[in-house]
């Protein structure tokens, strides 16, 4: 259990009722997977996005092995990026997350994990799409 008095109620809410927890098929070409770790503490976050034909994020799932703030940051970012295009989602700053969740300075790296995870998921998706285009060109 996390120590309630040290956390803002928004953190507690995301921690106790995490949104969009789970997995997407990482072999699906329309899914990008980001897996990142926090050097400061060793916590790990996996974030996956599914992108529809219009380039918008139509599904998003996370799994986080970490502290309450890391879980809350991942839960929050999944809600935030749903329906965004990739450029918008890539612009979310850890400081926005920390501000929204009222994280104290010592927990800033927890929200950094969420920023890194979404960027890494976007990169993975783009890499996969690039691969698809190359294969199509090679086949033509
Ligand atoms: Fe890893 Fe926070 S130090 S749970
Ligand atoms: Fe390490 Fe929160 S204490 S991610």
Automatic annotation (TrEMBL):
What protein name applies here? Iron-sulfur cluster assembly protein
Q: Which organism is it from?
A: Mycoemilia scoparia
By sequence similarity, the record places it as follows:
Belongs to the NifU family.
Cofactors required:
[2Fe-2S] cluster
Superkingdom as given in the UniProt entry: Eukaryota
Q: Which GO terms describe its molecular function?
A: 2 iron, 2 sulfur cluster binding; iron ion binding
The compartments listed are: Mitochondrion matrix
The NIF system FeS cluster assembly NifU N-terminal domain extends over 7-129
| UniProt GO cellular component terms | mitochondrial matrix
* UniProt entry keywords in alphabetical sequence: 2Fe-2S, Iron, Iron-sulfur, Metal-binding, Mitochondrion, Transit peptide
Biological role stated in the UniProt entry: Scaffold protein for the de novo synthesis of iron-sulfur (Fe-S) clusters within mitochondria, which is required for maturation of both mitochondrial and cytoplasmic [2Fe-2S] and [4Fe-4S] proteins.
Single GO BP term: iron-sulfur cluster assembly
Q: Does the keyword Iron apply?
A: yes
């Amino acid at each position: 259990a996390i120590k309630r008095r040290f956390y803002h109620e928004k953190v507690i809410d995301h921690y106790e009722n995490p949104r969009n927890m789970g997995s997407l098929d990482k072999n699906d070409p329309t899914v990008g997977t980001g897996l990142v770790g926090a050097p400061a503490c060793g916590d790990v976050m996996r974030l996956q996005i599914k992108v529809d034909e219009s380039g918008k994020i139509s599904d998003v799932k996370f799994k986080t092995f970490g502290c309450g703030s890391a879980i809350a940051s991942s839960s929050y970012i999944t809600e935030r990026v749903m329906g965004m295009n990739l450029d918008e989602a890539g612009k979310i700053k850890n400081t926005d997350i920390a501000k929204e969740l009222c994280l104290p300075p010592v927990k800033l790296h927890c929200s950094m994990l969420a920023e890194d995870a979404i960027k890494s998921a976007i990169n993975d998706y783009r890499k996969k799409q690039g691969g698809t285009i190359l294969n199509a060109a090679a086949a033509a």
